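[step 3/7] fold_predict: job queued, chain A
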Amino acid sequence: MPIENMTISQIKSRLIDKQFSCKELTEAYLNRIHEIDNKVKAFLSVHRESALQKAKEVDEKIAKGESLGKLEGIPIALKDNICTNGMKTTCASKMLEDYIPPYDATVTKKLKEAGTVLIGKTNMDEFAMGSSTENSFFQNTHNPWDLKKVPGGSSGGSAAAVAAGLTPLSYGSDTGGSIRQPAAFCGLVGMKPTYGLVSRFGLIAFGSSLDQIGPLAKTVEDCALGLEAVAGHDPMDSTSVKKPIEPDYTTDIYKGIDGMKIGIPKEYLGDGLSGEIKEKVLDSLKTLESLGAKVEEFDMPLGETELSAYYIVSSAEASSNLARYDGIRYGYRTENFEETEDLILKTRTEGFGKEVKRRIMLGTYVLSSGYYDAYYKKALQYRNKLRDMFQDAFKKYDLIAGPTSPVLPFGIGAKVDHPLEMYLADIYTVNVNLAGIPAISMPCGMSDSNLPIGLQLLGNHYQEKKLFQAAYALEQELGLCLQIPSVKEAL
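[step 4/7] structure written:
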């Protein structure tokens, strides 16, 4: 079986049975990156030497008969806003083009301790601001299913890497859908965990009250294994949850969903939703019913209000978080300036891209005197109302279902000059981040043009295990996992 079609469990069993070595496995992925990534452009950096060294260490453990951890020897990729000691972490921005962190993010540290093989850092929208991975300073990432389409964003590089079979597991960050939307566009499983479940220490901040790191994989079980490795309390992160959590997300994944109650807001199926997506989502709900779940529509007044609240809150936090990039402390620094004010102005003008500057300006505006109460305060009030709405819904339903994106993957360049249209692609995902609840996106069908369609399942706080259980049951019935697109030769 080709490596790109293997699940993590299949890779592990073959490593233990010595059907191939970890070095051979890692070399195979590195060679595939060399052959294909010039078309996909998923990676910003590939770390061949350190990956092969780690693979050698895993092979030595196998030779000694030592047991391996669940992810030991598994190649992974990290979004380039997750800090890696001694490796560039650029946020796909000119501002951090040459930045090499002196420390590992907690997620990076945990993955190293788990024995994974880090093969590279993936492309993204600059500072995670975007829905298409077209805002990168370095390159545009292409959707492996159609190289003329976007992979989604902002974790588009991480999604494209797994979809193209360049790595079996990757990690991204999700501020308003940036794991789930590219998962939907690339035909993958992507999990946005409960806020606080995964440490944000070492994740270069966009919106601090919204950001969460999560896994992207070809199957639900692989995604669950990916979350197991990074979940848990971290004293280095003041927003990390201190309560005991369930660290094993795979034990009950096979139990099925008989008797589970699943609600779908009527508002999710209204105007603006692609007809093809609506059809596949409704078909998936019927499948869930056939598996024993009770599915029903209900009223939940969701719409563009939470989209407005999200962009106010996230832009305000971005304005604050990105104030540190001033040309004085670290990062890009302009060469021609006369005084300190001129240094800061030119550095930020030259170092940030158009979308980042747009959101900094919006965030500064809503936080300014005279507008704080009118915009930012009201957005926070609506956020509290939204949380209450979800809590009321979860008193009636185990899970909430709906589409991940209202549109199919769109063409590269199609929405670059229309930011409001781009923002509307996040309409089904941003409410999850505002409420701090977990959600998973998984493939539920293909369009007539052979593009993936994603279904989103939402759960109450710390209900990741239930989400994996429902997603696994549907995945097994639909049989859509492990599809690898044949990357076209020409763009």
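[step 5/7] annotate
The mean pLDDT is 95.
The two ends are 28 Å apart (CA to CA).
exit 0
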